[in-house]
Every structure is written in structure tokens, then in C-alpha cells.
Design goal:
With 211 residues, the protein is of the alpha+beta class. The protein folds into 3 domains: 8-60, no CATH class; 75-147; 152-209, no CATH class. The chain has helices spanning 8-22, 51-60, 75-96, 109-136, 142-149, 177-186, 206-209, and strands at residues 29-32, 46-49, 154-160, 165-172, 197-200. The strands form 2 sheets. Strands 3-4-5 form a 3-stranded antiparallel beta sheet, with no helix packed on it. It has a two-stranded antiparallel sheet with strand order 1-2. The chain is elongated. The relative contact order is 0.06.
């Protein structure tokens, strides 16, 4: 037996799902749907590529158009100013998202200024990291790199001695293979592990050390 086609409601659901999956490409297809109450047949349901619309889109593909009322300005100067605006907006986006400049919960003005200053210095480091990534690892973003490098943690190991002092050994975790490869591409070298040092044991640690 010949398999029957979908009902009209089922067809509309499938077309809607295809539209969501295709995105902007769906606009280059002409579709004729059957009117309400009619069966889905080859005559009531047809689709074809809108060649005229597709050809027009191909002519514009790869071009960026700017519209401005500054008709007396040099187009090259306008483009440079627009790119500067894009960079400024990207900087503010990075400050508010990646570096968490917002929200600010400080009450005193000098603390708010200090908060913004620290965020700005962090952005300078982020911009420097971005420039290095473009040169050595263009496929990575500063945020992805920071998430990778977060696996490297520093800690102090305190070991009590018999004379009431503590041997403090500052150490950082050894990077795994992925982080080591990232450091190699960025041409970054971790410093040597700091040497241990002897300090007086904290007062609250003396009873515990004498046990």
C-alpha cells in the first residue's frame, strides 16, 4: 500500500521546525501551504528556492554597510571611528561581564573609584592577553585561557618542627598537559617554586603542635 502523506496540522508543525533549524536560510525558500480544510497533495503543497532573492543576497554577501548623515567626511575616517566605537563597546562588555565591574555594592566614593580602577587594570591585562593570543594562539579567547589557567593554584604548606616553629613551603600546582601546552603556545614560563622558610608557629597552633 502507498504510504499516506501527513495531515495539514502535522505539515505545519514540520515546516515550523524546519524554519527554526534553517534560521535565515529559510527566507530564501518559497512555500505554498494547503488552505485550511484541504488535503496535503503535490498540488496544494509546493516549495522551491527563491533564486532572485538568493542571488541578491549573494551579491551582498561579505559586505558591511554603514549609514550616516556625515556625508562630508572621508569614508575611511568614518570607518576608523566606527571600529573605535566597536572596540569601546567591547571593552565595556568585557568590564561588565568577564571582569565583573557590575554590580557595585560600595557605599563610599573612594571605594567605588578603587573598584573601577582595579577593573580597568584587569581589562588592560585582558587586552594584553588578547593581543598575545592573536599572535600565538588565535583560536582562543582570553576568557577561555583564564578558565584554563584557573587550574593552577598556589598554597602554603605548613609543617611543624620540634622547636615550636613551622616550615612553610609555598607551592603551586603543576599544570596538566592541556595547561602546559597552552603556556607553551603563549611562551609563558612559570616561576621556580619558592624556597621554604622557617617562621614562628602561630599562637593558636602551639597546643596542636605539642600534641
Amino acid at each position: 500500500m502507498r504510504r499516506s502523506g501527513p495531515k495539514r496540522d502535522q505539515l505545519l508543525m514540520r515546516v515550523g521546525a524546519a524554519k527554526t533549524e534553517a534560521g535565515r536560510a529559510f527566507g530564501y525558500v518559497k512555500i505554498q501551504l494547503p488552505p485550511a480544510g484541504q488535503a496535503v497533495t503535490r498540488q496544494t503543497f509546493t516549495f522551491q528556492v527563491d533564486k532572485v532573492k538568493l542571488r541578491e543576497a549573494q551579491l551582498r554577501d561579505g559586505h558591511y554597510l554603514l549609514r550616516t548623515n556625515l556625508v562630508a567626511e572621508d569614508p575611511a575616517v568614518l570607518w576608523d571611528r566606527y571600529m573605535q566605537l566597536v572596540q569601546v563597546e567591547a571593552a565595556f562588555k568585557s568590564l561588565k561581564s568577564d571582569l565583573g565591574i557590575r554590580p557595585i555594592h560600595h557605599q563610599l566614593e573612594h571605594r567605588v573609584e578603587a573598584h573601577i580602577l582595579v577593573a580597568f587594570l584587569a581589562y588592560c591585562l585582558t587586552a594584553t592577553l588578547k593581543g598575545r593570543l592573536q599572535e600565538h594562539a588565535p583560536g582562543l579567547t582570553p576568557r577561555a585561557v583564564l578558565e584554563k589557567l584557573a587550574a593552577i593554584q598556589a598554597l602554603d604548606v605548613w609543617l611543624p618542627t620540634t622547636d615550636g616553629r613551622c616550615l612553610v613551603m609555598p607551592r603551586y600546582t603543576e599544570p596538566d598537559a592541556d595547561v602546559a601546552l597552552l603556556l607553551h603556545h603563549l611562551r609563558l614560563v612559570l616561576p621556580q617554586q619558592p624556597p621554604p622558610r622557617l617562621v614562628m608557629a602561630p599562637a593558636d597552633a602551639v597546643p596542636r603542635l605539642n600534641m
